[in-house]
Write a structure and sequence with these properties.
Blueprint lengths: L1 H7 L8 H14 L4 E8 L5 E7 L12 E6 L7 H16 L4 H9 L1 E5 L4 H6 L36 H12 L2 E8 L2 E6 L20 H14 L19 E3 H4 L6 H8 L3 E8 L9 H17 L5 E7 L9 E4 L15 E4 L4 E8 L6 E7 L9 E2 L2 E3 L18 H29 L1
Parallel strand pairs: 3-4, 3-5, 5-8, 6-7, 9-14, 9-15
Antiparallel strand pairs: 1-2, 2-4, 6-8, 9-11, 10-12, 12-13
Helix pairs in contact: 1-2, 2-3, 3-10, 7-10
Length: 434
């Protein structure tokens, strides 16, 4: 009872490193079967990057249960997300077993919450400001949301400890859906943040193969937020229809975390700008929590969109590294099964052809009718069994090359043109010669 009381004693104020750690430890001690607390790495100054995992099976991945994550305080001076994630934790653990919706959500979803990705930047922000402080960056003066590998541009930037920790975390979990929480605007922004002519950048919009899903995800959050859906932004000069925007349409960004999740992590992530003031006064935190509470829960439910399943051999053994994608929307970095042979594809309700491919064998196609199963907390289940495969495929390989993929695609497209021109010229010359 003492532990539960301590865990529930969360007020609306800013929690610095020691207080944040104490709170997370208190929650885990009070709810040991529902939570798992671990550090995924350390910041430049040696502070732990804490993640609290919540769910029926918090310590490990369970087949069929999708992985979800929220990350906040990536920019150390953008503080609202840091605090509302603590209140989200409090709401989830205290509602489990009492609220049937939250109970089913936690029974069918493994939720990872990182309140701060940049603890050094938060502690360095000595004088809170609505617009800008040095605390935006990590201890090495690097903007962490410009520090990830980019799908369009080469970068010589040194990967920071905080960035590396998140990249390893993404690699080691089967994340399906994610959001990173920022401040300084009021909008839900979605992939791509960067682009080139292949993705439509010449028209001011960088479109991913899953653009329809991303629009739905962004609208899910904005429409359930107290005011984001109004699209008024933070001043009269900046408006966002329905409270959403394509990242590139807003402003071009290289090395962003949401594009990295989508391309290399097989995880759909959007960026949530939650406050016009980056570091607002403490007495406003209660309102920020109330404004975002419903949206935070409704967004998590979207991890159950689409279709999921396993790919197995004729003996029922899982096949890792099999490519599983919806026909007509291939990813430049093909989406592959995990070590348990699992795949998860976020798709809106409709009819799709799912293509499963085991390297060296004939592809298998299955037509599926996908309903909206978010209310049932389970995506449509569709397994694939390859009767001609009788051995376990070797361990999962890298999901895609390290080089900027869309830059390669551009070069490939450009390389075709001279070849066509040469062939045409040769044909004409041959006709003239004859």
């Amino acid at each position: 009872l003492c532990l539960a009381s301590a865990a529930a004693a969360l007020d609306f104020k800013y929690h610095h490193t020691a207080e944040l750690e104490q709170y997370l430890r208190g929650v885990h001690a009070a709810y040991p079967s529902l939570t798992h607390l671990h550090s995924i790495g350390r910041s430049v100054e040696g502070r732990d990057l804490w993640v609290l995992v919540l769910g029926r099976f918090p310590t490990h991945h369970k087949i069929g249960i999708p992985e979800f994550k929220y990350v906040a305080n990536m920019h150390g001076d953008e503080t609202v997300g840091r605090e509302i994630l603590l209140h989200l934790i409090d709401f989830l653990v205290t509602s489990y077993g009492r609220d049937p919706v939250i109970t089913r959500l936690l029974n069918n979803t493994r939720i990872h919450i990182m309140p701060t990705m940049n603890p050094d930047g938060f502690e360095a922000t000595k004088v809170p400001d609505c617009y800008y402080t040095r605390g935006r960056y990590n201890r090495n003066g690097v903007d962490l949301n410009r520090n990830f590998p980019d799908a369009f541009e080469n970068s010589s930037a040194r990967i920071q400890p905080e960035t590396r920790a998140v990249m390893d975390w993404i690699k080691n979990e089967t994340f399906v859906l994610s959001a990173n929480l920022h401040g300084g605007a009021l909008v839900a922004s979605y992939t791509f943040d960067n682009g080139n002519p292949v993705t439509g950048s010449l028209k001011g919009y960088s479109r991913s193969p899953d653009d329809d899903v991303f629009i739905h995800l962004a609208k899910t959050y904005s429409s359930n937020h107290a005011s984001m859906y109004k699209g008024t932004g933070c001043d009269n000069r900046q408006t966002f229809p329905e409270g959403i925007t394509n990242g590139y349409s807003w402003y071009q960004l290289e090395g962003g975390m949401q594009d990295y999740n989508y391309v290399w992590g097989q995880c759909f992530e959007i960026t949530l700008e939650l406050s016009c003031c980056k570091y607002p006064p403490e007495d406003q935190l209660g309102k920020f929590w109330r404004d975002n509470k419903v949206a935070l829960i409704e967004y998590i439910k979207q991890v159950h969109l689409g279709v999921k399943g396993q790919v197995t051999d004729k003996n029922g053994n899982p096949i890792p590294n099999a490519i599983v994608e919806a026909k007509g929307r291939p990813h430049v970095c093909p989406y592959r099964t995990n070590e348990q042979g699992e795949y998860f594809l976020l798709l809106l309700p409709g009819t799709y052809v799912i293509n499963a491919t085991v390297p060296g064998f004939k592809s298998m196609l299955k037509t599926v009718e996908i309903p909206d199963n978010t209310g049932n907390f389970s995506a449509l289940k569709q397994d694939f069994s390859f009767p001609e495969v009788s051995y376990k495929i070797s361990s999962r390989v890298a999901s895609c090359p390290k080089t900027p993929l869309y830059q390669e695609l551009t070069r490939a497209s450009a390389a075709v043109k001279p070849t066509v021109h040469v062939l045409a010229l040769m044909t004409i010359m041959l006709a003239i010669f004859k």
